[in-house]
Amino acid sequence: MLALAVSAAVGRRSLGMGVAAGLAFVSYLIDGFGKSIEWLEPWRVLTPWYWYDVSAALTDGMPWGSFAVLVAASIVVGALGLVGFNRRNLRA
């Protein structure tokens, strides 16, 4: 969804893919290192990896709160992508 939103806003597919891949990589590092580095711990809640906890789903059942956060974030970013796409002048 993020790649779609950025690509629609700027009109370049490669930039959208690069931003989405870069943000995924940085957020993965923050989540991974945040478990052992104290000052990164508060930033973990901003990453999708924090909310996507497979082990909790297997042991405690479906974490509906985490699922709702991920779905809401996807809807918001997808809506921003749709707005960006509708603002593009595709006739030019």
Structural class: mainly alpha
Helical content, roughly?
over 70%
Largest sheet, in brief, is: none
Computed CA radius of gyration, to the nearest angstrom: 16 Å
Order of helices and strands: HHHHH
Strand content: under 5%
| Overall residue-averaged pLDDT value | 88
- Uncertain stretches of 5 or more adjacent residues: none
Shape: globular
Query: What is the total number of structural domains?
Result: 1
Number of helices: 5
Number of strands: 0
Distance between the termini: 25 Å
How would you describe what is shown here?
- The protein is an all-alpha fold.
- It has one domain (2-87).
- It has helices at residues 2-10, 13-34, 48-51, 54-60, 64-87.
- α1 packs antiparallel against α2 and α1 (2-10) packs parallel to α5.
- The longest helix is centred in the last third of the chain and has 24 residues, at 64-87.
- The radius of gyration is 16 Å and the shape is globular.
